[in-house]
Amino acid sequence: MFSPASTVLQYVEAVQLKALASSERTRASAAPNLPTVAEAGLPGFDTSVWFGVVGPSGMPREIVEKLSRAINEALKDDDVTKPLHAAGLDIKGGTPEEFGVYIASETKKWNDVVAAAGLRK
């Protein structure tokens, strides 16, 4: 099964489940000895779970920048990051432009998967 680290790591640590590989592009900090699916033999495999903050189209640039600075600053605070790391999440942060490029690449990737599977609306 595929499951977020936050829901299975406790069972892996208790030896109730055996983790075979991480489905992310890079090894998760919560399980650094666990290879990725790509490392295990399926190059390019990546089904990372990700979260981000978005706003309405046309949001003024100064507000976007102010929110971006505040969020990136919060991501440096142990009170914010400790619970996220405990849930098996790795913190990335970045610029609004980088996140926009990432969202576009994820949208294309999953649209391609949907098309290859022959799925329809």
Q: Mind explaining what this structure looks like?
A:
- With 121 residues, the chain is mainly alpha-helical.
- It folds into two domains: 1-48, D-Maltodextrin-Binding Protein, domain 2 (3-Layer(aba) Sandwich); 50-121, no CATH class.
- It is built from four helices and no strands.
- It has helices spanning 5-13, 61-74, 78-86, 96-116.
- The model has no long low-confidence stretch (mean pLDDT 92).
Number of helices: 4
What is the N-to-C succession of helices and strands? HHHH
Mean pLDDT across all residues, rounded?
92
Distance between the termini: 25 Å
The helix/strand class is: mainly alpha
How many discrete structural domains? Answer: 2
Shape: flat
Low-confidence runs of at least 5 consecutive residues: none
- Radius of gyration (CA) equals 17 Å
How many strands, what sense, and barrel or not for the largest sheet?
A: none
Number of strands: 0
Instruction: Give the proportion of residues in helices.
Output: 40-55%
Q: What is the beta-strand fraction?
A: under 5%
